[in-house]
Amino acid sequence: MRNINYTSGLLSFKLNVLSYSEAVIFKCMYWYLGEFNVSIIHENDYHLVSLSLKNKEEFDEEELIVRIKNDLIDFKLREIVNTETSNLRELITAKAFANYDFDIFEKNDKSISDPVGFDPNEIKHE
Hints:
Blueprint: E1 2-7, E2 10-16, H1 22-30, E3 36-43, E4 46-53, H2 61-84, H3 86-98, H4 103-107
Helix pairs in contact: 1-2
């Protein structure tokens, strides 16, 4: 977080695109939309982020800066974990579907049954 500036109820700062992806910044700033007007502008190697309160009152900029820094770390860590575990999630999904016995329909002559006694073959078409 660089070039932190607070004037007249407007907090602005720059985030390096190499440190924070656009997805991380947008996910983080989404949680501030209830209280703040948020602007994110891409400038060369930085994203310029600006926040101002919707109710036009003053706010504690130091507290907000700490909160934003913590949230950026949170969402950056989520992105790292998501990237590092993507193969594991794919393997778990593949394993879950690999254990399904597709021969059940062939063994049962492709008939469909229901434990409550519903027989789809008895449906009359008018």
